[in-house]
Amino acid sequence: MERDAAEAFGGGLAVITGAGAGIGAGLARRAATLGMTVVAADIALDRAADVAALIEAQGGVAHAMKVDVARAEEMDSFAAEVHRRFGPVRLLINNAGIETVGFAWEIPADRWDATLDINIHGVVHGVRAFLPRMIASGEECWVANLSSVGGFGQMPIQTSYIMSKHAVQAFTECLALEVGLLDRDTPIHVCSVIPGMVRTRIFEATEADRGDVAVAHRTAMREAMAANGMDLDKACERIMDQMAQGKFWVSTQPRMTQMFVERRAAFLNAQAEPALAPELEPMFAHAR
Ligand SMILES: NC(=O)c1ccc[n+]([C@@H]2O[C@H](COP(=O)([O-])OP(=O)(O)OC[C@H]3O[C@@H](n4cnc5c(N)ncnc54)[C@H](O)[C@@H]3O)[C@@H](O)[C@H]2O)c1
Fold it and tell me: Measured in angstroms, how far is the CA atom of residue 186 from the centroid of ligand 1?
């Protein structure tokens, strides 16, 4: 029988990074609806505070906190403060992430650093800072990392982002194995959350977009997201439901995940040349 999400998560504490917008905000609202106390953490405290205020206005319990996931020492003190103020964490969602676009050789060095520091090291710091106390609590708990269908794909002009998501996917797979080595009576569920395309602000223009190709690509992706992206609340409900069942693979759009995984498997099996997926061809007309 499928486990009900409110039964799995209700009464527990959720810590969600990047909760000031998009999927993090949606998951924060959904977790609160399921009866969780939510720590909504973001580098933009004002956005996190708005999300926490909305949750409180709807009868939930939420606390906004500021953290930059890319900074190891900030994540350490954030985790210590969360534990001191609110007690054991049942659900940690390492969600904060940024999109970077442009030819690999045109992306400024500091944007490369930010992309890898937030998207990869932010997830690692989340696990490093929170998991020891979660293990020590002895209670059933969940660690969810935001991968992407891009974690299985190939895509030009989004190289740094795609690379970061391959890394998160690999990290999460190995983390699940490591947790499996622990001798425990209660499970620690490790989840790879794989959004397909969900309507958020991730493709809003940034000052780091360099060159016509970057600007055109971000515009094309933003328009594709507006036209074809999944509704945020529906996506977050699916994510929470699948996590409640202790699944490792957590997909907003399972058929899209399946397509990316099958293509990856075929590419590896054939040791094929990297190739642009046919349906993506039109999106890169501007880069030729
Ligand atoms: N939206 C999608 O279709 C999609 C698809 C695949 C994967 N994802 C992943 O989902 C996650 C959330 O993406 P989103 O679309 O909701 O993005 P978003 O841009 O709408 O929201 C991201 C939030 O993270 C915060 N953030 C950025 N840097 C941070 C930092 N250093 N420390 C703390 N917070 C920080 C931002 O302030 C923002 O509030 C990301 O990891 C993204 O890669 C999204």
Answer: 30
CA distance 268 to 275: 12
Specify the ligand 1 atom closest to the Cα of 70. Answer: 31
Q: Give the closest residue to 25 by CA, choosing from 199, 254, 192.
A: 199
Mean pLDDT of the chain, nearest integer = 97
Given a cut of 80, whether residue 10 has pLDDT beyond it is yes
Give backbone dihedrals phi and psi of 17, rounded to 5 degrees, phi first. Answer: -90, 155
Residue 153 near residue 99 (C-beta atoms within 8 A): no
From 161, 171, 203, 260, the catalytic residue: 161
Domain 5-287 CATH class label = alpha beta
Q: At what angle do helices 72-86 and 122-137 cross, to 10 degrees?
A: 30
Is 161 among the catalytic positions?
yes
223 by DSSP, 3-state: which? helix
The per-residue pLDDT for range 20-56, each reduced to its tens digit, is 999 999 999 999 999 999 999 999 999 999 999 999 9
Q: Where are the domains of the chain?
A: 5-287
Render pLDDT for 49-86 as a digit per residue (tens, 0 to 9): 999 999 999 999 999 999 999 999 999 999 999 999 99
- Distance (angstroms) between ligand 1 centre and the Cα of 22 equals 7
